[in-house]
Amino acid sequence: MAITVDPRHNHLLAALPDAEWQRWLPQLQWIELPLGKVLHESGAQQSHVHFPTTAIVSLLYVMENGASAEIAVVGNEGLVGIALFMGSESTPNRAVVQSAGQGFMLGAQVIKDEFTRAPVLHLLLRYTQALITQMAQTAVCNRHHSLDQQLCRWLLLSLDRLQCNELVMTQELIANMLGVRRESVTESARKLQKLGLIRYSRGRITVLDRPALEKRSCECYAVVKKEYDRLLPAGLPPGPPNFRR
C-alpha cells in the first residue's frame, strides 16, 4: 500500500489555520492502520489522537458480556480521541479499525495544549458536535429502522470516508458493528445484491448504484450527512504541504 504523505487528506488537518498547521506539522506521526487494530480500549488512558486519511475507525460500545455495537464511524473527516480535549483521558468506547488504511497521530499533551487556542477550539468543537449527532442518530436508527435500512446507512457513511466505492469487510465484522447476527447481515446483503445495488464477493463490497442505495436507506443517513456538511469544511487546500515521514 502506498504511503499517504499528505496529512491534509484529513479534513480537520486541512482546515487548520496556518499558524497551527506549522506548529502541528513537525509533531504529526504517520501510522499504518491495519484491519482490526485497536486504537484504544474502553476505560484505557489515551496517549494520542488519531487523524485517519485512508482508513475508517469504528467506535464501539462494549457490554459486560463482551457483546458490542457500533455507535459511530470516523474517517478522513475527523479524529479519534475527542475525550482528550473534553475533560477526560479515557472513554467507555473501543476504537477499532474497520477499513485498513493510513493516518497520522498526535500526542495527547500536544492536543490538550493546542485546544486552549481559539481557532483549534472552535474547529474541534464543531467536529465533536457532528460526531455526537452521528452517535445519537445511530441509536435512533438501531431502535426504529429495519436491518436493511441500517445496512444501507452504514455502507453510505463508510463510503463517505473513502475515495472509492469498495469496502473490504467480512459479514461477521459488519454484524459486530451493527450488533446483529451474521446470518441476518447475509440475508440483507443478498437482497441488496439481488436488486443490483451492491456486489459482494470474498469480503469485498462494491456499491454499484449509490443513488438507489440512498433511496433505500432511512432518513438517518441524510440527517448525519447534513450535519457534517454544515459544521465542517470539505475538500483540500490547493498544493501539498512539505511533509516527510
From TrEMBL:
Pfam families: HTH_Crp_2. SMART domains: HTH_CRP (SM00419). This is Putative transcriptional regulator, Crp/Fnr family. InterPro entries: cNMP-bd_dom_sf, Env_Response_Regulators, HTH_CRP, RmlC-like_jellyroll, WH_DNA-bd_sf. GO terms for cellular component: cytosol. Keywords: DNA-binding, Transcription, Transcription regulation. PROSITE patterns: HTH_CRP_2. Gene3D superfamilies: Jelly Rolls. One of its GO terms (molecular function) is DNA-binding transcription factor activity. Residues 145-211 form the HTH crp-type domain.
